[in-house]
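Re-run requested by the PI after the first attempt was lost when the workstation crashed. Everything re-entered from the original request form. Ligand of interest: zinc ion.
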Amino acid sequence: MRHYTACEHCDYLLNAPILNHNECAYCPRCGHRVSHRPKYSLQFTLSFSLASVFLFILSNTFPFLTISVQGQHNAMLLWQASFEFWHYDHKLLAALVFFVIFFLPLTLLVGLIYILAPMIFWRQLSPGTCWIARHIFKLKSWSMVDVYLVAVLASLTKLTAIASIDFGIGLWGYISFSICLSAALANLDRRRFWRYLEKVRCHQRLKQQKQPI
Ligand SMILES: [Zn+2]
């Protein structure tokens, strides 16, 4: 059985075969990787998503950094960043930081766990799985925690010149969170997901047919 799919870069219509584990399909026109199938990719996505939730809680519970200037110590938590911008009347920046740091990663993580956990553990589809999955694939490219992390690290190197800075557990938690979230999204292959969903749907139908009336 062969499936048609369009290349995301050049819109070339491919008649790609079903891939085996660790195989990749490339566009013959532009060479862009259209699909790949690492072993247990969706299971990896779920595992990294669960780890990301734990690390996200950790990075928001413990101090992100402590700034010491002239004997005064000021500890800051991650979630306080957007509130500080709001407090100093940078409302647009505060909304942007809130969206990038909290809303988008959390929405992606909750959505991924909600749809993948029942599929993998119980071979069942949660209500609204298709709708949520479509939005996750759209939002996926907007997750920029790694960009934000680089921006934070660049700012910290400048701050060390004017104040003494101690890195807290929150910062290390956020670095680990960024790595885990990036790994979760990197393992999430669109074609692999829809095929797996079809398998689970067939399994659900067979189960319903076998049930005594
Ligand atoms: Zn192409």
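Saved to the shared folder this time. Helices lie at 41-61, 80-87, 91-122, 129-139, 145-159, 169-186, 190-210.
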